[in-house]
Amino acid sequence: MTSSFFSLVVVTFIVGGIGLTTQEPCEPGYVTDLEVNDNFTVSWKTPDDENCQIDHYFVYMSFLNGSIQHTYSVITEYIHFTHLRSCEAYSIRVHQVSSDNIIGLGLGILLVAPPPEEANLGLNFVNVTQVGANVRLDWSLDDEWRTCANRYRVVVVNEDSNDAMDIYTQATSLILNHLVPCGHYTLTVVALFTVFQEGPITAVRHTAIDRITTAPAVAGITVEQTSVTIEWVLEEYSSNRCPINSIVIDGSPSFNLTYPVEDQVNRTPLPLTISNLNTNSMYYLRVRADNSAGPSSPTLLAVQTRTAS
Ligand SMILES: *[C@@H]1O[C@H](CO)[C@@H](O)[C@H](O)[C@H]1NC(C)=O
Ligand SMILES: *[C@@H]1O[C@H](CO)[C@@H](O)[C@H](O)[C@H]1NC(C)=O
Ligand SMILES: *[C@@H]1O[C@H](CO)[C@@H](O)[C@H](O)[C@H]1NC(C)=O
Ligand SMILES: *[C@@H]1O[C@H](CO)[C@@H](O)[C@H](O)[C@H]1NC(C)=O
């Protein structure tokens, strides 16, 4: 390319003048508005404030490893590429050339040849595997188009609350670690190629694995002579949807009671009364909430009944 560089000194005689003016050759600046259009066309403009008279443009097309593949000389402000290898990335550099034949500095842009229309851009599979308490998503694309996919979009839709979360990744797997136990999800994955081209969406349904609920908390205690009423606060439904089926109040060796629970979406504090107790007696309670994953850890509590009046 150095062979194209040469300086041309233009000597101008001012008509009617006495002096002799030597004009410097004009070195062009950068092009502007350099962009890649969806049809393999790279376009640019000569800026309005360009000082030089632009005669034509040099366009260098190279692979990302730097080896130059083609050099073009064009008078248009665009170049239309054909026969690009699908999924190959090219660096396109555009230089202005002044009427003095001075080549300006080049401006570069990346062109990734998209996959052809008929390419199968669908994912081969989307797998969901349980890894401990987490979920791992794996997917794959045909080898042929894999280098073309610049990233993937995963959408995690919580079907119960209608919340959706978008995750973009260049990897072909993802760990999801914040799923609500027993929650219902739709997981979708799509490969993204260019701004305009994306593959079809693959969706899988998933119900999150169950998990024991938190230990019940005490909201209030009412003590009588032979009974105690305790109000229990259970884990919020939105953070664990696994159905709670009973509350076990273990006052061994005196008693061990199981209260069946009809689970509710709002899970308001639940009052439970223990009757037939002795007056003025201390009871040590271990209280657990039982759901589909088993009993929670216990809440420990000591209560004393009133003395007889
Ligand atoms: C390519 O797209 C550009 C802008 O989107 C348009 O101006 C141009 O005519 C198109 N060229 C071809 C060859 O389709
Ligand atoms: C540069 O990359 C192209 C295409 O990927 C390849 O054909 C060429 O051999 C590479 N050149 C060098 C010097 O590595
Ligand atoms: C995903 O599922 C497909 C089809 O069931 C199976 O062939 C593949 O081995 C699975 N891949 C992984 C990583 O589990
Ligand atoms: C109390 O009852 C529960 C539920 O039936 C049981 O799991 C637990 O072992 C019992 N406690 C004792 C001390 O037997």
UniProtKB/TrEMBL annotation:
Q: Which UniProt keywords apply?
A: Repeat, Signal
Keyword Acyltransferase present in the record's keywords: the answer is: no
Gene3D superfamilies membership: Immunoglobulins
Stretch forming the signal peptide = 1-19
Where does the Fibronectin type-III domain start and stop, copy by copy?
24-117, 212-309
Query: In the UniProt record, does the keyword Repeat occur?
Result: yes
Q: What is this protein called?
A: Fibronectin type-III domain-containing protein
Q: Which organism is it from?
A: Aromia moschata
